[in-house]
Design goal:
Alpha-Beta Plaits; six-stranded mixed sheet; alpha+beta; Ribosomal Protein S5, domain 2; 2 domains; 29% strand
Length: 267
């Protein structure tokens, strides 16, 4: 049994579009104690079967994609899998649930099938499936650059967050298609982040694309400084203590279904 953790983007700066179609960006990725649970069991035939508490995920899933890729590259034969996914991380929410699941699946089959590839190999392999997967194959939290493949471990102080998910599934691909490069966007550094000089460059794109999210953002902003993670779907407040987070949680109307989570420092 494996826990597959979500992440928050503490900021996102979009830089130029690359020749390969991706964008260069900068971000801090931080894991939080919200997670899906994955179990893997070998089968005697060649089938890979996925069961989930969310039926739509049983048909098309990034987990199957990475396992099939691993199987093809490692020339593993006549081994199947029963996979069970208990989904707790909202889908299309900017929390990296799919990428985290994919990374967890790579780690699991690497062990289960005794392929024994290095972590570096898994990161390189995973990039062909998704830009965020290498982060979830790394320990701790990170300063991210490139398309997501340049990962520098950093220390982030323990914090608590109040998450509010908009119940809107947002396509990362579609949000990137709406990006208009701001020529004044220069590379930032950690000092810019600590001085609150950077935010999430997707915020205005998301708010202008989804009127429901703009309304929600305007209402929730009355409770404090509101942030957006990923390409949208989830807003979050930053709190320095559990006490502060729980107090804020109590003030937010129940209809928004707020959730208190904690940052993870060492995983």
């Amino acid at each position: 049994q494996y826990k597959s953790y979500a992440k928050l983007n503490l900021f996102i700066r979009i830089l130029e579009k690359r020749l390969d179609g991706y964008h260069n960006l900068q971000s801090i990725f931080e894991k939080i104690n919200l997670f899906d649970v994955l179990t893997f069991e070998s089968r005697r035939d060649n089938k890979i079967l996925l069961k989930s508490n969310i039926k739509a995920l049983e048909e098309e899933n990034i987990i199957i994609d990475v396992i099939n890729l691993m199987k093809e590259k490692s020339k593993v034969k006549n081994i199947g899998l029963n996979i069970n996914l208990r989904k707790n991380i909202p889908i299309g929410a900017g929390l990296g649930g799919g990428s985290s699941n994919a990374a967890t699946a790579l780690i699991a089959v690497n062990r289960l099938w005794k392929i024994n590839k290095s972590n570096g190999y898994l990161k390189r392999l995973s990039l062909s499936i998704g830009s965020d997967i290498p982060f979830f194959l790394s320990h701790g939290n990170a300063w991210i650059e490139g398309r997501g493949d340049i990962i520098t471990s950093i220390y982030t102080k323990p914090r608590w967050y109040v998450l509010v998910h908009a119940n809107v599934c947002i396509s990362t691909k579609k949000m990137y298609e709406l990006v208009r490069i701001n020529k004044t966007n220069h590379k930032c550094d950690y000092d810019d982040y600590t001085k609150n000089l950077v935010g999430n460059d997707f915020l205005n794109i998301v708010l202008s694309t989804f009127p429901k999210l703009r309304t929600m953002y305007n209402k929730l902003s009355k409770f404090g400084d509101l942030n957006l993670t990923g390409t949208g779907g989830t807003f979050f407040f930053i709190c320095d203590s559990e006490f502060e987070a729980k107090n804020l949680h109590e003030t937010i109307p129940r209809k928004y279904n707020p959730k208190v989570v904690e940052s993870l420092i060492s995983l």
